[in-house]
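Q: what does this look like with iron/sulfur cluster bound?
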Amino acid sequence: MSCSLLDCGTVEERDFEMADYEGSVARWCPGCGDHAVLSSVQRVLADERLAPEQTVFVSGIGCSSRFPHYLNTYGFHGIHGRALPLSLGVKMRRPDLHVFVVMGDGDCASIGAGHWIHAIRYNFNVTVLMLDNNIYGLTKKQTSPTTPEHYVTNTQPQGSYLRPMDPTSVVLGMAGASFVAQTADWIPAHLLATMKAAQAHEGLSFIRIFQRCPKWTPDIFDAKVKAPHEIEVLGHEDGINDPKVTKMYKNHREHDPSDLDAARALTGPSELTRIGLFYHNPEQPIYDELRRSRSFTTEEKLAELEKEFDRYAI
Ligand code: SF4
């Protein structure tokens, strides 16, 4: 039996195990942070009872963009930098689906930058995971927009020329931002809590995940893992709170995620790596809902077509 594209959403609620979401065996390097993110994603899907047949992962190109292959959900492994417009297409036609987008720092902030800033402005209903390892890993250590200044790469062997972009700062600068958070692959409790909060948010949730790349940027991320005193946890009753994380890290900052100016002030160069919910505005208009509410219904479209055909009837 066929169904209309917009009325397939009635799915029997059932329980799932993490194993229900396992796709092919992940072929990332041993120790790559992508493995930890994949496990957390499977945990979120199972805990939130998101049926595999109602869930879609969309990606572009890069190591992390292998995600759709490793999950037993629907998936779309797109082209470089184009994951966000593809995800909007999915969401426009199938608002009942849970849509996730996985991008790396190059895919999102360089090749896909035009799509990225407009996706933030549109605030359509998807969960965006930006896995930031500070390098193009798949193409073997090329400078990306988040590579630290002076960092030696294969494209800039004398050291990266420019200061890095702060993706969180860019997102917070866009009208339309509605959920902006940072977390790290090696802090599983925080990663899980952040992804659950993002998935529950209506609108575009953007999570920058600091991601270990033991192959090309081990010195950057090993140092972060070994220096818990350089992590600062943002906490608030409306933020992301996990008692285990609060205990593990001594640097805490009270930050009200409804305060956009305060959120912006927390971005940019700092000795500290900040994790937590920077900004949350559940009142921000949602593009796909606005557009659907202002479009013709299927019946109206058919009636208009009939009218047009009648004009040519003899
Ligand atoms: Fe992971 Fe880096 Fe290996 Fe890519 S190159 S799979 S990001 S460790």
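Residues 28-29, 32, 34, 63, 133, 137, 213-216 surround iron/sulfur cluster (CB under 6 Å). The longest helix spans residues 33-47.
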